[in-house]
């Protein structure tokens, strides 16, 4: 089985792939534009092969944050009612204020921003990510 890992924006065609695993972070309650573009551009191919989706979002596992992020993700995906992922998961992400874009850095300066004065963190749960990834071949029918 051949596996290719590519940024969504680099994918020209899905013709050579039997299945798709897409990962995308949530930013300000939304999926990034390149993820939206990928879904719109490859709609036909994505309906013809199994798709698994994961999103990275909340920065820790508190129940409220997880539920809020899951609601954001569900709302974003509701724009694609034709998309029927065989697996869909939300994982805790990481945060590094030194790597933010100019625009996001500006946002964190606002006292009202949830990221205001937030220190760097990486609470990704690699055991959970590995467990999910290990189950994918079966769920994708590979
Ligand atoms: C400016 C900014 C906005 C964010 N907004 C949200 C959000 O609305 N919901 C959420 O669950 N996580 C949010 N996050 C957390 C990111 O999804 C998390 O940091 C993720 O791991 C980023 O992935 P990346 O480093 O691959 O871009 C935000 C992070 C940043 C920096």
Count of spatially separate domains: 1
- State the helix count: 6
Oligomerization category of the chains in this entry: single chain
Q: Return residue spans where pLDDT drops below 50 for at least 5 consecutive residues.
A: none
Order of SSEs: EEHHEHEEHEHH
The largest β sheet comes out as: 4 strands, mixed
Morphology call: globular
Structural class: alpha/beta
The first-level CATH class name: Alpha Beta
Query: How far apart are the first and last residues' alpha carbons, in Å?
Result: 9 Å
Look at the structure and give the mean pLDDT: 96
CATH architecture: 3-Layer(aba) Sandwich
CATH topology-level fold name: Rossmann fold
Bound molecules: flavin mononucleotide
**What's the helical proportion of residues?**
25-40%
What does this structure look like?
By secondary structure, the protein is α/β, with parallel strands linked by helices. It has one domain: Rossmann fold. 36% of the residues lie in helices and 18% in strands. It is built from 6 helices and 6 strands. A 4-stranded mixed β-sheet has the order 2-1-3-4, with helices on both faces. It has a two-stranded antiparallel sheet with strand order 5-6. The longest helix has 15 residues, at 63-77. 14% of the residues are buried. The mean pLDDT is 96. Flavin mononucleotide binds next to strand 1, helix 3, strand 5 and helix 4.
